[in-house]
Amino acid sequence: MSDRITLSMWEPVQAHKALMHAWMHAKALLMAGHRLVLEVRPETRSDAQNRRLWAMLRDISQQVDWYGQRLTDEEWKDVFSASLKRQKAVPGLDGGFVICGQRTSKMTRGEMAELQELIAAFGAEKGVQFKAEGEYAH
């Protein structure tokens, strides 16, 4: 038996069945003397959203100069996620600045959709030619 179980819940009857399954798993571990942690949280971004995000970031990084510089996909991710969450920049230990912000891997599906809308709007403003929607999934 694995020590970890992850369940998706999307409606009450199905969620009840999933929780009963989790209880049977948890009960065996508790009876064996293990301490457990239960976390209930909104579902994070989907794999398809993740693939689309990185494809969009790649399109932006290949087509947009930012104040005379070409940023990497990862740097653009930081710029957009900081903009979306109105995050703060603080001085770094050895100069420069550090953006204090949210990781996209922790975003809910709704937050990820909002981030991608921001990227699409920015791209449209800058004349970015995004790949066709069907190409993002690959």
Question: Explain this structure to me?
Answer:
- This protein is mostly helical and 138 residues long.
- It folds into 2 domains: 1-40, no CATH class; 47-136, NinB fold (Orthogonal Bundle), CATH 1.10.3790.
- It is built from 5 helices and 2 strands, in the order H-H-H-E-E-H-H.
- A two-stranded antiparallel ribbon has the order 1-2.
- It is elongated and about 60 Å long.
- The two termini are 34 Å apart.
- The relative contact order is 0.15.
- The model has no long low-confidence stretch (mean pLDDT 88).
CATH-defined architecture of the largest domain: Orthogonal Bundle
What overall geometry do the principal axes of the alpha carbons give?
elongated
Radius of gyration: 20 Å
- What name does the CATH topology of the largest domain carry? NinB fold
The count of helical stretches stands at 5
Instruction: Give start-end ranges of low-pLDDT stretches.
Output: none
| Percent helix range | 40-55%
Q: Characterize the largest beta sheet: strand count, sense, and whether it forms a barrel.
A: 2 strands, antiparallel
| CATH homologous superfamily descriptor of the largest domain | NinB
- Count the strands? 2
Summarize this entry quickly.
The protein is mainly α. It has helices at residues 12-31, 47-63, 73-85, 109-126, 133-136, and strands at 88-91, 97-100.
Using brief descriptors, characterize the structure shown:
138 residues, mainly alpha, NinB fold, 5 helices
Describe the secondary-structure layout:
Blueprint (H helix, E strand, L loop, with lengths): L11 H20 L15 H17 L9 H13 L2 E4 L5 E4 L8 H18 L6 H4 L2
Antiparallel strand pairs: 1-2
